[in-house]
Amino acid sequence: MKYSRSLAAAGLFHLAVGLPRPQMVYEDNKGEVGGVEAPIPLYTGAPVGDLRGSTNLQGGIASRPPADGGDSAVVPDPELVNGQDADSDLGLYLDFNSAHYPNGPQPIRGGTGGTDPGPRTYEYEKLNPDVYAPPATDDGTVPQAMWPLGLSHNLFGSGKQSGWARQQNQDVLPVADAMAGVDMRLEPNAYRELHWHTAGEWGLILKGSVRVAALDEDGATFVDDVTAGDVWFFPQGVPHSLQALHEGAEFLLIFDSGSFSETGTFLATEMLMRTPKSIWAKDLQTDVSSFDNIPDKEKYIFNGTPAPANISEQNITSSAGALWGSNGYTYHWSQQEFHNTTGGSVKILDPLTFPIADMFSAALVVLEPGALREIHWHTTSDEWSYFLQGSARITVYAAPASSQTFDFTAGDVGYIEKSNGHYIENTGTEDVIFLEVLQAKKFSDISAAQWLALTPRQVVKDTLNLSDEVLDAIPKEKTLIKPGNPNMTAIAGES
Fold first, then answer.
1. Which residues are registered as beta bridge partners of 212?
2. Beta bridge pairs of residue 494
3. Beta strands in 256-378 (DSSP E)
4. pTM
5. Which burial class, exposed, middle or buried, applies to 239 when counting CB atoms under 10 A from its CB (0-12, 13-18, 19+)?
6. d(CA 416, CA 397)
7. Distance between CA atoms of 489 and 94, rounded to whole angstroms?
8. How far apart are alpha carbons 1 and 18 in whole angstroms?
9. CA distances from 452 to 211, 227, 394, 470 (A)
10. Per DSSP, which regions of 277-401 are E strands?
11. Residue 399: other Cβ atoms inside 10 A
12. What is the pLDDT of residues 340-356, one digit of tens each?
C-alpha cells in the first residue's frame, strides 16, 4: 500500500505541509520509492492521526504484501555509454555525461554490476564515473583520496563583500595527515589580517595580485607584490599580512600539517584584545587611552585602504634591513617557462631554487586531452594535489593488493600517501592543469616505466611475462608525461 493512498486513513496528511519544495532543479529519481508515492498531496488543518502504526502490522500478523505489482525495482531500457560493455579490466574512462536521464548512467562495466533504480542524484555519478562503475582492477580498500573544496564550509570575512575562505584538512579528508589546504578570496584592496601560524604556509596565486609583508626573528622585513602563478612561503611563526591589489585575488594555501585549521590562526586583533591594556601601554610606550578604539572582535578578512602603487612607501626597515633573494619569502613562478614535452608541460619549484621553503616541493602540470602523468610514486613524502582546470582520474595502488580509482574536476583536492603507486590521466576534452605538492627538499619520484627499462631484462621477463618487444620500446629516461588518444574508449575496438 502506497504512503499517499493511506494518508487519509492514517490521518497523516498534515505531515505533508512541512515538506519543502525543491529550491533547485537537477536530475534525480522521481516517483515511488521507499513505500512513498510522490508527490504527496498538501494538507492544511489541525493535526490528526497517530504517529505510530498498529502492532497488527508486525511480521507474521499482518497480511503478506503482493510479490509484484508494487514499487518495481526493474529499470526499463537501461542505457550504456561507449566502452561500458568492454572488458572491465581495460578500465576505460566512461563519459557518463553522454547518458540520458532517466535510463542512464548505470553502474555496469563489462557485464558486471547492475542497474540502479534509485534513490540517486545523477550529477554525482556523472562527476565520479570510476567510483560509480569502477574498473575491475579496483580491489580491496584504499583510503578516500579526494575532497572537493566546493563541499567545504565557506567562512566569510567581516564587512561588506570582503572575501571568504574554505579549507580541507583531516576533518574532511582523514588520510591527509601531513598537509592541509585553504582556498581564499580577497576582494579588491581587502586584507587577510596580520597573523601567524604554527604551520608553514606555501601559497600559490590563482587569480589577481597580492601584496605580502612579513618580519623575521631578526627584525628584517619583506614586502613584495605577487601575481597569478607566483608563490610565497612563510615559515611557522613568521608574522605576515596579505592585501589584494586593485583587481582582487584568489589564492591557494598549503600548510605542512594535516590538522591545520584556519580557525586556529594567531591574529593581531585577538592578541591585542586578549592582553591587558596596561601591558600594551607599557610595551608600546604610550598612554592607555591609545587603546580606547581597538577592535572588539577579530577582523580576519576585511576591506582596506588601497595599497600605494609605489611599494617602496611600505618598505619599512630596522638596522636588520630588508630580506631579498634566497632569504625572501616569494618566488615569481609565473615568469618561469614550462618544460614542454609530447602530451603536456611541467615546471618544478623546490628548495633548489626557492630555499626559504625548505620542505616544500611542487610541480605544476598541464596534460593535453588523453595524456597521462606517468605511473609513479614518491619515496619520502605524501602528495597533496589540487586541480585548477579540467577533469582527470587517479588510480591509487596500495600494498599489497588494493587499488581504487578516483575522479577529479577543478577545485578538487587529491591526497596520495608516500610509496603508493598512481597516475593522473586527462579524461576531458580540454587541458587539465593540476598542482602536485610534496614535503621534500627536492621534487622527485620513481617512474614505473623507467624502473622496468633499467632493471635486468630477464628479471622483468620472468616476473611480469612481458615481451622483448614491449621492453625495447620503454624509454630509459624519465618522461613524466605520456601522450594518449583523446578518444578514451578507442581501445575498446582494438581489444
1. 224, 242
2. none
3. 266-267, 301-302, 330-331, 339-341, 344-349, 361-367, 372-377
4. 0.91
5. middle
6. 9
7. 8
8. 23
9. 47, 41, 21, 10
10. 301-302, 330-331, 339-341, 344-349, 361-367, 372-377, 383-389, 391-398
11. 8
12. 999 999 999 999 999 99
Residues written for the chain: 495
436 an active-site residue?
yes
User: Reduced to 3 states, what is the DSSP secondary structure of residue 469?
Assistant: helix
Q: Assess contact for 312 and 204: CB atoms under 8 A.
A: no
CA distance 225 to 40: 59
Give the single-character DSSP code of 139. Answer: B
The one-letter amino acid code at 491 reads I
What are the pLDDT tens digits along the chain (495 aa)?
Answer: 343 444 444 444 444 444 454 455 566 667 778 888 777 788 888 988 899 999 999 999 999 888 787 778 889 899 999 999 999 999 999 999 999 888 999 999 999 999 999 888 899 999 999 999 999 999 999 999 999 999 999 999 998 999 999 999 999 999 999 999 999 999 999 999 999 999 999 999 999 999 999 999 999 999 999 999 999 999 999 999 999 999 999 999 999 999 999 999 999 999 999 999 999 999 999 999 999 999 999 999 999 999 999 999 999 999 999 999 999 999 999 999 999 999 999 999 999 999 999 999 999 999 999 999 999 999 999 999 999 999 999 999 999 999 999 999 999 999 999 999 999 999 999 999 999 999 999 999 999 999 999 999 999 999 999 999 999 999 999 999 999 999 988 887 754
Burial classification of residue 479, based on how many CB atoms lie within 10 Å of its CB (0-12 exposed, 13-18 middle, 19 or more buried)? middle
Q: What are phi and psi of 459, to 5 degrees?
A: -60, -45
Q: Over the range 338-359, which residues count as b (16 or more CB within 10 Å of their CB) and which as e?
A: eeeeebbbbbbbbbeebebbeb
Rounded Cα distance between 268 and 289, Å, is 19
Residue 176 grid coordinates: 591527509
Q: From 176, 137, 98, 125, select the one nearest 423 (Cα to Cα).
A: 137
Cα–Cα dist 70/28, whole Å = 21
Instruction: List all residues 6 or more positions away from 327 whose beta carbon is below 8 Å from its beta carbon.
Output: 216, 220, 356
Q: Which residues contact 141 (CB under 8 A, 6 or more apart)?
A: 402, 404
* Residue whose entry in the numeric block shows the C-alpha cell 490528526: 48
* Residue of 436, 469, 477, 494 marked active site: 436
Residue 88, judged by CB atoms within 10 A of its CB (0-12, 13-18, 19+), counts as buried
